[in-house]
Write a sequence for this structure.
């Protein structure tokens, strides 16, 4: 997508002013922890996206881009904090672009040229910040919970909309199910009410018709043979005939409603209900006494309610401008912490539901009884309505759950009935009994009218239940079909990623895990991740593999995902100290993987490990000008940079200024730095030092001796195979290394303590120029001479202790060290 030629960082994070010339190639930034490496990473991410992911997410409360991205001494002047990038866009014919972004106005960078095609590429970059990978993010792919891993991987693959839509469909399905449950509850209540009105134990069509037809015969009406959806139970009843006054109150209905109220009242004081309430009261009291747990319960529901509202680039609570992905990640992270608390709350709320349901039914019964009381005992209505209001308040407090003090108060009053309430019911009962009994015909007529009204209520409840059931079934079916198809698509994607990941991991662990395989297992919004452990089976990565292997897995999985996501557009990636625990035996292979499998990708790598940096150079992942070293950091000046990107030019520049001391210091520092790497690659026999501090005199001669020995062995092997041309090439290399070493006079200086490398600083410019030239030639004797390689020679092994050949990164140097077996 893009290549970065140069970055200039001004008053940003811990950097005051720092230009780095990447030249569109791989670049490494090394140095101890705390020297400013991550500041460059932040600057790259900010320059390309306008955001710094490190300043957002869980654990970053109170930190903001505008306040904390500028250097601490420029925090009141965000316009001074800026990043300037010089880019190339390969897909646009390597078009050159200048991008300048200020913390004061991060969403409006200055882009030159400001053309639609350029802006389109930059917009894609802003939408895809995954080009920056830190170890914290890398290890999350490996050790995350399956559900969280699914979110991370789908977000990286730009498939997060699949998960979002799955979540939306699940929400719709859950809502429909809740509506179905509510409709089922209403239908059950209507069924129970109809059965009581009919005075039959169980609502069955034949029982209903039997009871109805008895009354119809009394009224001289034809019996109903079949119960249909349009059957009218009181069909033919003359409710408005002359001389037949309609009573003001239906005694049968009123007595049935009174009985329902008494039955429910008995359930409220039943030991089963009061015992459950007492147990819940104990648990909620303990929860209320734990401030931390109570705070989690409170915030969990608030955050869960807030999450669906995070759609606009503003906080849904305070309207503060926010980066939406960062805000959602922040809220989701907090919800993860509150997950166990949420489970506890859900369990308690499920136990409270039967109690609130009983309250709801009691309120419905009281409301029905009030209609009758208004006619026969108006003075009792206030008692019924007061108790109904009290029950309504208790139900709302329990359903709200919070504050717990209110819920506890309501629970403690569940079995408490107003002292005069039984007397109220007795008076209503007496008033109903006092109503003259209707004639047989009147009773039959009232019976049919009441039952038909309740039948209509039941029919409507069943229609709603059927409709809500259809909606719930449809929503569930849509969700199931979508989930199945999404899983099929994801399975295909994961299979490809799984294959590439396994190949990458095998390539960096070929010495001990050449048969390695992995399994990415998607299931209902989750992704399981199991890996082979030396043929003993597949297990989670954290089960048996070391941290070093887990780091390697994380990188390989990231690379496989990025290759799947961007393909040929995967041209730029920042790896921020992601391989800190990979063991030394596999570091070269990691560098080779990046170089050989991703030749068109520009990697910017940071590391605090000098060995890593050396491997990058020796394999050819970075070139001679492809690294810089931060040796120190201060708040006043930012990182102190040591660069080997143009060491010979720097030495020449110092000599032009007649500054032999500086030139000598650079040459010695660089030579010690480089020959440590050479000694390592060639397995030179260096006198052991417990403190690991080796000076140039300790490693130079053994490195030369080691290369001579290797070349001599390679010549003997070539002679044994009859490869005359190879013998000739090796002899040329032997001659070159001998002459180069002699030209440095290093062997004489090592013998004579009076003349040591520290004496270089006392040379004249002309004398020291010859030393520089000699060392330059000597260094080149250890390197491939191919322009695209220039990598250091290294020994290759077929087994841990079996030498195979002397090679370079590009393969143009491959000197066989195995002699031809003697024939019998």
């Amino acid at each position: 997508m893009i290549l970065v030629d140069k970055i200039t960082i001004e008053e940003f994070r811990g950097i005051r002013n720092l230009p780095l010339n990447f030249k569109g190639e791989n670049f490494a930034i090394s140095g101890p922890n705390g020297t400013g490496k991550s500041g460059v990473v932040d600057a790259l991410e900010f320059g390309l996206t306008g955001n710094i992911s490190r300043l957002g997410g869980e654990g970053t409360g109170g930190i903001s881009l505008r306040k904390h991205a500028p250097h601490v001494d420029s925090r009141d002047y965000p316009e001074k904090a800026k990043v300037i990038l010089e880019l190339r866009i390969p897909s646009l014919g390597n078009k050159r672009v200048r991008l300048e972004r200020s913390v004061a106005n991060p969403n409006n960078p200055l882009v030159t040229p400001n053309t639609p095609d350029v802006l389109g590429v930059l917009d894609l970059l802003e939408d895809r910040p995954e080009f920056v990978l830190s170890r914290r993010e890398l290890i999350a792919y490996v050790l995350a919970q399956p559900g969280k891993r699914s979110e991370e991987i789908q977000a990286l693959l730009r498939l997060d909309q699949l998960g979002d839509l799955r979540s939306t469909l699940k929400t719709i399905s859950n809502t429909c199910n809740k509506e179905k449950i509510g409709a089922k509850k209403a239908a059950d209540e209507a069924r129970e009410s109809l059965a009581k009105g009919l005075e039959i134990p169980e609502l069955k069509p034949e029982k209903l018709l039997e009871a109805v037809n008895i009354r119809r015969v009394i009224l001289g009406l034809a019996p109903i043979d079949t119960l249909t959806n349009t059957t009218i139970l009181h069909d033919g009843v003359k409710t408005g005939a002359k001389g037949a006054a309609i009573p003001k109150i239906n005694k049968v209905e009123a007595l049935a409603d009174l009985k329902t109220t008494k039955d429910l009242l008995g359930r409220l004081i039943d030991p089963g209900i009061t015992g459950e309430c007492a147990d819940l009261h104990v648990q909620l009291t303990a929860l209320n006494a734990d401030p931390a747990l109570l705070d989690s319960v409170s915030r969990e529901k608030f955050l869960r309610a807030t999450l669906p509202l995070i759609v606009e680039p503003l906080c849904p609570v305070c309207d503060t401008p926010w980066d939406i992905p960062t805000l959602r990640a922040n809220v989701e992270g907090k919800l993860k912490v509150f997950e166990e608390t949420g489970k506890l709350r859900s369990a308690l709320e499920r136990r409270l539901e039967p109690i609130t349901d009983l309250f709801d039914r009691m309120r419905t019964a009281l409301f029905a009884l009030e209609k009758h009381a208004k006619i026969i005992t108006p003075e009792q209505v206030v008692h019924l309505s007061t108790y109904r209001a009290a029950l309504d308040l208790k139900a709302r407090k329990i359903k709200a759950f919070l504050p717990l003090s209110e819920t506890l108060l309501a629970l403690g009053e569940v079995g408490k009935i107003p002292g005069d309430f039984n007397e109220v019911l007795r008076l209503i009962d007496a008033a109903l009994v006092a109503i003259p009994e209707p004639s047989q015909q009147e009773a039959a007529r009232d019976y049919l009218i009441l039952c038909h009204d309740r039948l209509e209520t039941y029919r409507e409840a069943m229609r709603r239940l059927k409709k809500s059931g259809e909606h719930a079934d449809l929503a569930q079916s849509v969700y199931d079909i979508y989930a199945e198809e999404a899983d099929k698509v994801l399975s295909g994607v994961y299979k490809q990623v799984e294959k590439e990941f396994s190949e990458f991991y095998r390539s960096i662990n070929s010495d001990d895990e050449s048969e390695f395989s992995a399994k990415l297992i998607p299931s209902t919004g989750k992704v399981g991740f199991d890996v082979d452990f030396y043929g003993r089976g597949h297990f989670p990565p954290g089960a048996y593999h070391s941290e070093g292997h887990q780091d390697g897995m994380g990188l390989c999985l990231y690379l496989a995902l990025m290759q799947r996501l961007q393909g040929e557009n995967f041209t730029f990636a920042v790896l921020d100290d992601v391989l800190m625990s990979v063991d030394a035996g596999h570091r070269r292979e990691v560098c080779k993987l990046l170089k050989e499998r991703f030749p068109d990708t520009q990697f910017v790598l940071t590391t605090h490990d000098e060995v890593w940096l050396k491997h990058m150079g020796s394999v050819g992942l970075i070139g001679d000008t492809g690294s810089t070293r931060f040796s120190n950091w201060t708040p006043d000046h930012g990182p102190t940079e040591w660069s080997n990107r143009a060491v010979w030019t720097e030495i020449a520049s110092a000599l032009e200024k007649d500054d032999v001391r500086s030139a000598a210091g650079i040459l010695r520092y660089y030579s010690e730095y480089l020959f440590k790497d050479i000694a390592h690659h060639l397995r030179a026999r260096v006198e052991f030092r417990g403190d690991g501090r080796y000076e140039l005199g300790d490693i130079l001669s053994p490195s030369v001796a080691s290369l001579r020995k290797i070349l001599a062995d390679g010549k003997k092997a070539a002679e044994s195979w009859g490869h005359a041309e190879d013998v000739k090439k090796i002899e040329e290399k032997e001659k070159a290394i001998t002459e180069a070493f002699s030209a440095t006079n290093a062997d004489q200086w090592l013998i004579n303590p009076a003349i040591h490398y520290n004496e270089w600083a006392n040379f004249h410019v002309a004398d020291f120029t010859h030393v520089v030239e000699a060392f330059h030639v000597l260094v080149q004797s250890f390197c491939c001479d191919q322009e695209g390689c220039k990598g250091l020679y290294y020994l290759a092994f077929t087994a841990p202790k079996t030498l195979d050949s002397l090679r370079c990164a590009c393969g143009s140097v491959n000197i066989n060290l195995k002699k031809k077996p003697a024939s019998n």
